[in-house]
Amino acid sequence: MLPPPREPGRYAVALVCLGNICRSPTAQVVLEERLAEAGLDDRVVVHSSGTGDWHVGQAMNRRAAATLTGAGYDPSRHRARQYDDSWLASHDLVLAMDRENLADLGGRSERVAMFRDFDPGDPGADVPDPYYAGTDIFAEVLTIVERTADALVVELAALPDG
Questions:
Q1: Is the residue at 6 inside a domain?
Q2: At the N or C end, where does the chain have fewer CB atoms within 10 A?
């Protein structure tokens, strides 16, 4: 269940991984696409960030971007950002990609959870970090993200309009 919106008629979701060049931007691109398809893009805003600062300002990892492009998404607008504690006050829901990211965010709370808490296939699991892995894992990450984003959109659509 989603926490209530801080502002009626608007919902802000933050997606957080380690460097903001693979998993969280992939999830942002997919979730934004799914929200647009559902007609919710005027009510739900999505941001992504990383807990580390070493990729700030960089484009998405080329393998992640190629995987998204190959699946019909546009990853070109992404530039990595670092998570800041102020995001918790400005977002209704902050979703970590793995348990390490969750710990970096201070653990679970009313507004902080795991992205895959919404995954009907493996609720609460980590989204695997593909950065040091082979190219094939990027497709696996995309499959996980798409499935989870679809379920998350169903939850977001059920929120009151305010």
A1: no
A2: N
Q: Give the whole-angstrom CA distance, residue 44 versus residue 96.
A: 18
| 17, 34, 98, 116: the active-site residue | 17
pLDDT for position 102:
97
Element (H, E) at 23: helix 23-37
For residue 147, what is the enclosing H or E element?
A: helix 136-157
* pTM, two decimal places: 0.95
- On whether residue 69 sits in a domain, the answer given is yes
**CATH number of the domain enclosing 27:** 3.40.50.2300
The active-site residue, picked from 22, 23, 81, 126, is: 23
Q: Is residue 111 part of a domain?
A: yes
